[in-house]
């Protein structure tokens, strides 16, 4: 127990350090909020044992998640390009591409055949990344049956369109609530082992209860090979609470996103719900993921944290590599400031490009508007490795 506590203090200190580095949000750290989260983790918190009411709420929430994502329309490229947040979406996509390519490079040094689990795959937004990474087998799982159908369709289209000499990976598609059901019961080959599990923008839905978060982690990690990786992206509880604490209401945001908590100053480790809306559309409720707790829970599945970085830190490190910079331009992950004669900025609101104006005096720079940057800098990237 002592060892467990000291490692948490470590993790806490690292998080606190990051607060001062991650300056993009223009907010100041609130030590009371972070210590309140940590206090709860240290044990002086209410009982988490499930009650009947809680179980009903959890099941309602799962239905809400599935219904929400099932209803989401697949938007064509032209439509997506018109969005106010097109560059932020491209930026997030670039970040996932770099993360996935890096991890596949590492795995390939040790293994010839690579098998991947895409947990919470959605409509298959990462299929091309797996194809470019030359993997051999992919298992896609999601709670939303319609998303899984569309993902499978996209995979079939990708195979059909590919060059006859192109070897596309084989794939399996599973509809499951991965915070409640075990994927191992649904796999075609119950002995299958994964080299990578990728969980992009998903884990925060499972932190409604300890049981759900544990089942999600179990699905992500229990079938990983020793030396295999669990990678993902999730909102940073510190960043969310920090911004909430300096706001004068239960909410904070800007012209592209808004986060609304039910109350302030009380942040339970599980079930701490908030609403996230993007471009005015309210998403399904999400739950805070307190990262030191996430890290501790992953140890149960023999997982060691390799790194956790804010999107800002990850971007600043990876963009130094020329191939990532080229990919960034190709994916249009940043917009040009000032725009060329045919171009138009994503926002014409006052102050959205002041940060770019300061550095663009001599030549155009690539940037995101202030509002998009504030939205994307809420997130974290993490990489865990399965111990032998
Ligand atoms: C924000 S989307 C991300 C989709 C995809 N990973 C990506 O990066 O494009 C979140 C996805 O998580 C899925 N999801 C949420 N809760 C889940 C659960 N309990 N089990 C499986 N999938 C879940 C949703 O259906 C949705 O497809």
From TrEMBL:
Catalysed reactions listed for this entry: a 5'-end (5'-triphosphoguanosine)-ribonucleoside in mRNA + S-adenosyl-L-methionine = a 5'-end (N(7)-methyl 5'-triphosphoguanosine)-ribonucleoside in mRNA + S-adenosyl-L-homocysteine
Where does it primarily localize? nucleus
Q: What class of enzyme is it?
A: transferase
Q: Where is this site: mRNA cap binding?
A: 123, 129, 154, 204, 286, 379
Tell me the superkingdom of the source.
Eukaryota
**E.C. no:** 2.1.1.56
In this chain, S-adenosyl-L-methionine is annotated as bound at 96, 120, 142, 177, 200, 205
Biased composition annotated in UniProt, kind: Low complexity: 23-36
> Where do the segments described as Disordered lie?
19-65
Gene Ontology terms: cellular component: nucleus
Its function, per the record, reads: Catalytic subunit of the mRNA-capping methyltransferase RNMT:RAMAC complex that methylates the N7 position of the added guanosine to the 5'-cap structure of mRNAs. Binds RNA containing 5'-terminal GpppC.
What is stated as this protein's family in its record?
Belongs to the class I-like SAM-binding methyltransferase superfamily. mRNA cap 0 methyltransferase family.
Protein known as = mRNA cap guanine-N(7) methyltransferase
Organism, scientific name: Sinocyclocheilus rhinocerous
List the top taxonomic levels of the source.
Eukaryota, Metazoa, Chordata, Craniata, Vertebrata
Q: Which gene encodes it?
A: rnmt
């Amino acid at each position: 127990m002592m060892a467990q506590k000291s490692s948490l203090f470590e993790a806490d200190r690292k998080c606190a350090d990051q607060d001062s580095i991650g300056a993009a949000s223009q907010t100041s750290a609130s030590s009371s909020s972070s210590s309140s989260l940590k206090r709860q983790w240290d044990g002086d918190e209410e009982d988490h044992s499930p009650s009947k009411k809680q179980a009903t709420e959890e099941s309602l929430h799962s239905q809400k998640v599935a219904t929400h994502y099932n209803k989401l329309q697949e938007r064509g490229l032209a439509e997506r390009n018109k969005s106010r947040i097109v560059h932020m979406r491209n930026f997030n996509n670039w970040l996932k591409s770099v993360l996935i390519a890096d991890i596949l490079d590492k795995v390939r040094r040790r293994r010839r055949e690579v098998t991947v689990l895409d947990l919470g795959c959605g409509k298959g937004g990462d299929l091309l990344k797996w194809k470019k990474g030359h993997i051999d087998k992919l298992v896609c799982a999601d709670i939303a049956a319609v998303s899984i159908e569309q993902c499978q369709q996209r995979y079939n289209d990708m195979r059909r369109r590919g060059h006859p000499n192109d070897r596309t990976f084989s794939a399996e598609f599973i509809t499951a609530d991965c915070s409640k059901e075990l994927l191992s019961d649904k796999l075609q080959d119950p002995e299958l082992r994964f080299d990578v599990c990728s969980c992009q923008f998903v884990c925060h839905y499972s932190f409604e209860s300890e049981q759900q978060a544990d089942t999600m982690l179990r699905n992500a990690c229990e079938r990983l090979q020793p030396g295999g990786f669990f990678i993902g992206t999730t909102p940073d509880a510190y960043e969310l609470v920090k911004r909430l604490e300096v706001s004068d209401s239960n909410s904070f945001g800007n012209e592209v996103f808004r986060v609304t908590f039910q109350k302030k100053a009380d942040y339970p480790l599980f079930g701490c719900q908030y609403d996230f809306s993007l471009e005015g559309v309210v998403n399904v409720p999400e739950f805070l993921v307190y990262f030191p707790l996430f890290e501790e829970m992953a140890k149960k599945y023999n997982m060691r944290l390799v790194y956790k970085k804010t999107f800002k830190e990850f971007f600043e490190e990876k963009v130094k590599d020329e191939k990532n910079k080229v990919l960034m331009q190709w994916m249009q992950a940043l917009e040009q400031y000032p725009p060329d004669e045919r171009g138009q900025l994503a926002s014409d609101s006052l102050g959205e490009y002041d940060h770019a104006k300061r550095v663009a005096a001599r030549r155009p720079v690539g940037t995101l508007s202030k509002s998009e940057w504030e939205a994307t800098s809420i997130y974290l990237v993490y990489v865990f490795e399965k111990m032998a």
